[in-house]
Specification:
Layout lengths: L6 E9 L3 E5 L5 E5 L12 E8 L5 E4 L10 E9 L3 E5 L6 E4 L12 E9 L4 E5 L18 E9 L3 E6 L3 E6 L12 E10 L3 E5 L8 H13 L5 E2 L7 H8 L3 H13 L3 E4 L2 E4 L2
Parallel strand pairs: 13-15
Antiparallel strand pairs: 1-2, 1-4, 2-3, 4-5, 6-7, 6-9, 7-8, 9-10, 11-12, 11-14, 12-13, 14-15, 16-18, 17-18
Helix pairs in contact: 1-3
Length: 278
């Protein structure tokens, strides 16, 4: 079966004037226009293509790689807004349509928006939606406390930053756990810190417990090794803001890390800062 909005590995059936016709095991066919035809090919070769509807609503295959495919989230730029909705740049000739009803806030040309791509069953067209929360579900969780997860930064709130977890669930990084600047659409790793009633997921960007010590200690060592004088102008008396600014970690994590390094005799702690041992 040929899947619209996804990559398909299809067989080259025949070479025609408009391009190559490709087919699957169920006798479905799709055109690969001449502009995408490889320089060298043989009939019956397999080729991976992305399939969607072109400007004339015809099924078409391309060898381009869009910035988003069906069932995914991505940060896309709005190229144009018309009377029927917005059109987004997703890396293909035909722009990705986002109707007004799917816009969390009115889109403007030149703006960047986190969207979800889905297949409209009525028109069989791929459509974008910036109402991303409705494509997430926390009813049945696929993660547990302390799991490492993939995150996409969604949108800020008064409590912190909302994130999409493993493309499936909604979570929150509380303000007190934010030790680096985040932007909407950023992709990064995180840890499930806690599961609260109602399957609400608290996320942290730092390792939890004993797993937190080693990577932060290594980060401090690397910082010291890159300094000519081997000195870090921070101590356990330094403010959380200064620690965050220099190392992007909390004061609690910093104190654990330097405690470990001190026990290992990798550093010495003076009144004016921390020094590598020689």
């Amino acid at each position: 079966m040929i899947h619209i909005g996804d990559y398909n590995k299809l067989t080259i059936l025949r070479d025609t004037e408009p391009g190559l016709f490709l087919g699957d095991d169920e006798d479905q066919e799709v055109l690969l226009p001449n502009r995408y035809v490889p320089k060298e090919f043989e009939i019956d070769d397999k080729i991976e293509v992305f399939v969607y509807l072109d400007n004339e609503e015809r099924l078409v295959a391309v060898t381009d790689h869009p910035y988003i495919k069906k069932g995914e989230f991505a940060l896309l730029r709005c190229n144009n807004v018309t009377d029927i909705g917005a059109f987004l740049d997703w890396g293909l000739v035909k722009e990705l349509f986002c109707p007004f009803r799917e816009q969390a806030f009115p889109m403007k040309a030149g703006g960047w928006y986190l969207v979800y791509c889905y297949l409209d069953e009525t028109s069989e067209r791929l459509v974008a939606s910036s109402k991303t929360n409705r494509f997430l579900d926390n009813k049945e969780l696929t993660v547990e406390a302390f799991d490492e997860v993939d995150l996409i930064v969604s949108h800020p709130s008064d409590l912190g930053m909302n994130v999409i977890i493993n493309k499936t669930h909604l979570g929150l990084i509380f303000n007190q756990d934010l030790f680096k600047d985040l932007s909407i659409g950023d992709k990064l790793k995180g840890i499930v810190k806690k599961i609260r009633p109602g399957n609400k997921l608290d996320i942290t960007l730092e390792k939890i417990g004993y797993r937190n010590i080693e990577p932060n200690a290594q980060s401090i060592l690397e910082f010291l090794e890159n300094k000519e004088d081997g000195c870090l102008k921070l101590t356990d008396k330094s403010s959380p803001e200064d620690i965050k600014s220099l190392l992007q970690m909390s004061k609690k994590s910093f104190k654990k890390a330097i405690g470990t390094l001190y026990k290992q005799r990798r550093i010495r702690i003076e009144q004016d800062g921390i020094y590598l041992t020689t």
